[in-house]
Amino acid sequence: MSGNPYGDRLPLPPVVGYAGDWSLRPGDELAFHLSAREAPCDCAASIVRLRVADTGPDGPPYLEEHIPSPLDGTHRVAVQATAAGSFLRIEPSEPLAALQAFALELFVRPGLGPTGRPQLLFGGWAAEAGRGLALILDEAGRPAWIASDGKGAPRRFTLESPLRAGCWYGLRARLDRKGGAVALELLPLPDRRPDFRRPAAAEGRLDGPLPALERVTLAGTPPESGGPTAWQFQGRLEAPRLWEGAEAAVFDSQPFAAWDFAEGISAESVPDLGPHGLHGHCVNRPKRAVRGRRWDGSEQDWRDAPAHYAAIHFHAEDIADAGWAPTLRWRLPEELRSGVYALKLEAAGTAYHAVFFVRPAAGRERRGGLAFLASTATYLAYANYRRRLLPGGAELFIGALPTVDPVDLLLPLHPEWGASTYDSHADGGGVSFSTRKRPIVNLQPTDRLWNFTLDLLILDWLEAEGLDYDIVTDEDLAREGPAALAPYRCLLTGSHPEYWSTTMLDGLESWLGEGGRLIYLGGNGFYWRVSHLDDCAAIEMRRAEDGTRAWAEEPGEYRHQSDGVLGGLLQRCGRPPNALVGIGFVAQGFDASAPYRRLPAADDPRCAFAFEGIGEAVIGDFGLAGGGAAGLELDATDPARGTPAHALVLARSEGHSNAYQVVNEETLVAAPGADGFYDARVRAELTFFEHPGGGAVFSTGSIGWAGSLWRPGVGYGNPVARLTGNVVRRFLDPTPFPPPPEGR
Amino acid sequence: MTDSLRDLLRPELAAEFRRKPLGRHSPALQGLLVALRRQASGDYLLVAQRPGGPWLLARRKPGGPMAAPPEILDSPPLPSLEAAEWEVFRRRWRDLTGAEPPEDAPPPAENRA
After folding, report:
1. How far is A73 from A160, CA to CA, in rounded Å?
2. Do A415 and B66 touch (CB under 8 A)?
3. Domain identity same for A143 and A44
4. Does residue B46 belong to the interface with chain A, where contact is any CB pair within 8 Å?
5. Who contacts A252 (Cβ-Cβ below 8 Å, separation ≥6)?
6. Which domain holds residue A172?
7. Mean per-residue pLDDT for B15-29?
8. How far is A57 from chain B (nearest CA, A)?
9. A538 has pLDDT over 60
């Protein structure tokens, strides 16, 4: 499905693309991977620096700055196929193709019942030519051999026993290419659910010539001309083994090949323990470190018991790299200033932005200056967020009608672009990987006011204040650790820095220990743990155990496959945000925001700088994000979770709506009335504390804060902007922060 | 439609919602909104024609986790989120009662400032 079903009412971009890297420096070369969605298409390309997002009629006017480049002009963009859907590719081998008679054993846990189309388990099948030899689950979910030389209808031999979704089976299959004798044998494996699944077996014959095993794959087959995986198997496979010979007793002999999914779980490769070294390679990052047929609950960590985790879970929705060829290349000029940039693609009255971030040239950072940390890990976690388009209860937790942007409507038209870590797979599991090697529709300067667009508002405000800054991204912090921050005296986060690896946290804490000054200008930050992989092009995350979450990780599968760390809330990994920035996530709602009320601690001389020139008792009863500075997602102090004893709460929000709910990780026994109308825990707390490293931390505790840097009808001249500016300037001032008085 | 939901459809709550569709509501109005959103959802969705509106009213359709294209409803573009909230409230009220909701009933005594 593609095109545009909405016509002129909602023009949709005919050309999209992605930047080959997100974090660059002047002098670097950047490739852009572009594709027309339907048919080859002319589009006008230009490089722009994104200055301020389109925040609607109440906000600052949209601003982007054209950067002249050799890319300026019209380009013909071809359609590129997107390789989505995970499978296992076996290295081509002569011994495999030479097999005349063979037997196969593997363990299968289908994710879905009958899908109405074949799902390849093992074999060599050219989907477009309709040629090959394969063991499949057929349209009705039954095991079957299928063979075809590409002429005439494929021939099949089917076992009349459909597999049940979510249950493990052993499956044995034999085939003799000479004579066509075939056999299938299905053995249901017991689990704790009582059932009456029964073993089944059948023997028979496939007529006609049977092709050799070529281009062997498991769980799906890539179409010859590219594009999403054909005959995608959705579910888990384990321990495929192959024997030479098709007699019933062959299973007692040494196998010809034995692929061990318990080996090298963090890797993309799958070793063959057999004599021919027919190793496999995972394509599109299927999920590993998942429970296999032997998992019994006695083990929770795949590293301790790999045999319990000897399965791989394949999904149609998996994507590790769209695989588009580079269309345009650009060498960043040496004088290009640090900022947020995009390749802008204009066609058919629409604009699409392929975003990237530019740091200063190495050695030319603003020493002792200000850096803005672009939340690239969080942008990735939200990339291609589809859930908002699904029927369901979103209106209840939003407290208002869900909204989407026209570009979001590209997502249902392009399932092959993959989903966000807020979405689920067709068989119910959560999407635990996200890559930037694909078009990301919701990283646009025209997105609804959230995260990236609010972050652009922060940058525009810095420009208006005359506060010079460099951009650093999460990727840089993940790669370089504290060295990425070392040049800077003050670091400003974005509006919603939610996803962090512990490597990033280590870097930030180390920099704070050396005197760094941190301004956490957001809400629900430092919340979920991620691991970076693919040289930081992708993240892995598992929504383990607890937290406000779109899905819950499967029992026993809480550890990341890429590095074995425990996934989930950082507070449950010993890294509560309160210990880092004084506050942590307590409540959310999305209908309307509320103001803060100044507290007596605001008069403490330790933080008098913050309120200079601010006489108001109520701060932020305006703004672009719900009309208040405290809104969307809120954080507050909690000494039990690590808020420093000497932290000062300078202001607290009040008057939140009924839509705001205390988050479930703060709830032991659910009870009515845990909302903004009844429950005083629903609040954001503006917090300051000195850091023993010599610096300090200032936290706003609200995603909405950034939206109140701008006051509709007034602009950046307002108490929220003034207070934020006071803090940034003090944090840039090298004067040390004296330690708090004794007893604090 | 359940009788209990019909009992919640009081004119003064419609008027309260008309005055302030987003933000803090009286517990009675909140109760009505929860019931409407749970029991008469309609899977409404707003599609921004431009950032900040106007908005097109749409319905989300079932179609698996990768989402199905929403259906844009035959309704004039709505100039603001508040107008969109009222439009959906009206539709739900009308679907349940066959009549338009009142826009200006006096608030009950306990809700008066």
Report:
1. 60
2. yes
3. no
4. yes
5. none
6. 87-314
7. 96
8. 6
9. yes
Q: Which residue of A has its CA nearest to B17?
A: A400
Q: Tell me, what's the ipTM?
A: 0.94
Q: Stretch A479-492: mean pLDDT, rounded? A: 98
Question: Is B27–A658 a contact, with Cβ atoms under 8 angstroms apart?
Answer: yes
**A737 domain-assigned:** no
Q: Is B89 on the interface with A (CB under 8 A)?
A: no
CATH no. for residue A157? 2.60.120.200
Together in a domain, A101 and A143: yes
Are B45 and A411 within 8 A, CB to CB? Answer: no
A656, closest residue in chain B (CA to CA): B24
Cβ atoms of A197 and A188 within 8 Å: the answer is: yes
Which residues in chain B have Cβ-Cβ distances shorter than 8 Å to A656? 24
| Best A12, A115, A389 residue to mutate vs chain B (most B CBs within 10 Å) | A389
What is the 8-class DSSP label of residue B90? Answer: H
3-state secondary structure A243-267: EECCCHHHHHCCCCEEECCCCCCCC
Tokens at B87, concatenated: 């439009």
Interface test with A, best of B39, B45, B56, B66 (most A CBs within 10 A): B66
Split at pLDDT 50, 70, 90, the class of B40 is low
- Taking the Cβ of residue B98 and every Cβ of chain A, the question of whether any pair is shorter than 8 Å is answered with no
Is A301 a member of any domain?
A: yes
Residue percentage of chain A with pLDDT more than 70 = 99
Mean pLDDT of A489-497: 98
pLDDT score, position B105 = 63
The length of chain A in residues reads 744
User: Which chain A residues are closer than 8 Å to B25 by Cβ?
Assistant: 657-658, 677
What's the mean per-residue pLDDT of chain A? Answer: 97
Please list the helix, strand and coil fractions of chain B in percent, rounded to the nearest 5, in that order: 40, 10, 45
Burial of A225 (0-12, 13-18, 19+ CB in 10 A): exposed
User: Both A72 and A130 in a single domain?
Assistant: no
A-B contacts (CB, under 8 Å) = 138
Q: Do A534 and A581 share a domain, yes or no?
A: yes
Residue B112, pLDDT > 50, answer: no
Mean pLDDT of A456-471: 98
Whether residue B46 and residue A592 make contact (CB cut-off 8 A), yes or no, is: no
- Beta strand pairing status for A490-493 and A370-374? parallel
pLDDT over threshold 90, residue A393: no
Q: State residue B103's pLDDT score.
A: 78
B52 touches chain A (CB under 8 A): yes
Same domain, A568 and A629: yes
Determine which of A658, A661, A677 to mutate to test the interface with B (most B C-beta atoms within 10 Å).
Answer: A658
Confidence (pTM): 0.97
Closest CA to B44 of B77, B23, B73: B73
User: What does residue A241 show for φ and ψ, rounded to 5 degrees?
Assistant: -135, 145
The better pLDDT of the pair B105, A17 is held by A17
Instruction: Determine, for residues B45 and A446 on separate chains, whether the beta-carbon distance falls below 8 Å.
Output: no
Burial of A663 (0-12, 13-18, 19+ CB in 10 A): buried
- Model confidence at B2, pLDDT cuts 50, 70, 90, reads low
Tell me, yes or no, whether A34 and A130 share the same domain: no
Position A398 in a domain: no
Is A669 among the domain residues? yes
Cα separation, B24 vs A399, whole angstroms: 10
When divided into structural domains, chain A yields a total of 3
In this structure, are A128 and A162 located in the same domain? yes
Pick from A643, A640, A682, A685: nearest CA to A663: A682
Contacts of A409 in chain B (CB under 8 A): 47, 69-70
Q: Are A656 and B24 an interchain contact pair (Cβ–Cβ within 8 Å)? A: yes
**Tokens 């009412």, residue located:** A9
Question: Does B99 touch chain A if contact means CB atoms closer than 8 Å?
Answer: no
**A674 and A701 inside one domain:** yes
